[in-house]
């Protein structure tokens, strides 16, 4: 590997007692040797911290941060990011599993550098349940496990803001310089990935690796399962963060085409909040759409 760049894998743990060792071992046992691990336990209420402490006793070089209160993923990640020495960063939840060639494939893609300003590479993920059984893929695949629908690459901002180009965040590698430029995750949000992809795609190119890079575990407590739950406090917090992300994205838009594209995302969120009976947030989206249509008509 050219120059053997250091890769920092930030491992975020919250009540992952059953899965954390498998996840950490997957990060450690990559076919690429130059890896720094930073583990953050976000004040787990199960036995996660003890499991991690017992494991890292054999690896004194691994940094372990124990939060004294539950800070959430954005703040926990940013704490670790300040300590990271790697040129590239992976954000790994401690119930997910990196495949052995994940890091090497990501680095090779960065080395090819077919875009002027490549900042993020990502691939596909195999979805598994709590028992570790596979049941689907993040992006549907054919018999050869190749993605059926072609992914957009390069400047993907327009596609990201419209909601049409979802990113498999768990399979991504991001240049440390990109995180530094964007000042990490927005700590005012309940989740991080959509906001990061919007802000990053405004300034940097993205590339896609048509390989399965990671096994993503879906459980009843996974963030993705809470977007659609009716009358749920976590759902309301998550969906309000999406509203804040969309408002931020509107300020990043430069063209009438981009202002029109984000209406698609607004309409999707309006329907979602209607289904989840979040009428207060729905009313905010209605006002946001009116302002956006005014912006399109008179400001462009």
TrEMBL record:
Domain Glycosyltransferase 2-like: 8-137
InterPro entries in the record: Glyco_trans_2-like, Nucleotide-diphossugar_trans
Domain of life: Bacteria
Residue ranges of coiled coil: none
Molecular function per GO: hexosyltransferase activity
Name used for this protein in its record: Glycosyltransferase
Organism expressing this protein natively: Flavobacterium panici
Lineage: Bacteria, Pseudomonadati, Bacteroidota, Flavobacteriia, Flavobacteriales
């Amino acid at each position: 590997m050219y120059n053997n760049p250091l890769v920092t894998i930030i491992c975020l743990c919250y009540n992952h007692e059953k899965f954390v060792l498998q996840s950490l071992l997957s990060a450690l046992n990559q076919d690429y040797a130059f890896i720094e691990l930073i583990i953050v336990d976000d004040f787990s209420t199960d036995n996660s911290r003890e499991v991690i402490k017992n494991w890292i006793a054999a690896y004194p070089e691994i940094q372990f941060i124990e939060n004294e209160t539950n800070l959430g993923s954005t703040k926990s990640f940013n704490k670790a990011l300040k300590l990271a020495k790697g040129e590239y960063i992976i954000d790994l939840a401690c119930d997910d599993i990196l495949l052995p060639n994940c890091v090497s494939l990501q680095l090779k893609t960065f080395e090819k550098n077919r875009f002027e300003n490549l900042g993020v590479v990502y691939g596909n993920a195999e979805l598994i349940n709590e028992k570790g059984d596979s049941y689907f893929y993040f992006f549907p695949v054919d018999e050869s496990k190749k993605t059926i629908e072609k992914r957009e690459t390069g400047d993907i901002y327009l596609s990201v803001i419209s909601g049409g180009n979802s990113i498999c965040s768990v399979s991504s590698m991001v240049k440390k310089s990109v995180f530094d430029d964007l000042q990490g995750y927005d700590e005012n949000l309940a989740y991080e990935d959509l906001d990061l992809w919007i802000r990053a795609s405004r300034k940097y190119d993205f590339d896609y690796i048509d390989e399965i890079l990671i096994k993503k575990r879906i459980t009843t407590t996974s963030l993705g399962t809470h977007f659609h739950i009716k009358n749920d406090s976590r759902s309301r917090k998550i969906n309000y963060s999406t509203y804040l992300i969309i408002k931020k994205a509107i300020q990043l838009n430069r063209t009438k085409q981009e202002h029109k594209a984000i209406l698609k995302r607004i309409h999707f969120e309006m329907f979602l909040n209607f289904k989840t009976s979040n009428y207060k947030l729905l009313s905010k989206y209605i006002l946001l759409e009116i302002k956006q249509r005014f912006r399109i008509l008179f400001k462009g």
